[in-house]
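Justification of computing resources. Each target in the renewal requires a structure prediction run like the one illustrated here; the chain below, 126 residues long, is used simply to show the kind of job we budget for.
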Amino acid sequence: MNFPSELKYTEDHEWIRIEGDTAYIGITDHAQQELGDIVYVDINTVGDTLEKGDVFGSVEAVKTVSDLFIPVAGTVLEVNDALDAEPELVNSDPYEKGWMVKISVSNPGDIDGLLSAEDYKSFIGA
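Resulting structure tokens:
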């Protein structure tokens, strides 16, 4: 499994890449393996301002549907439109082409509570 060290992680198995006052969010390599083949990503929160821990969408795999939780407070700026036609990008490239939302971070202090790659690996027992 892959755990890029430049990312932060949550106990809900999301990752976040901070770029200034914006951030990209998706699910971890571990999460996509646990879910199996992703068949649909449902995110209808563009323009919504969400608090840390709010649901920003869901991901549907062959056998289950799982909610997606925003790791930091912010406003959803963009959804990865490529996932409409190719939801399997979440499986094949979860940290790059399989990103889910881009947000404007409203509370940078939220980042401090997130897990490092090493902490996340320990959390999942990898």
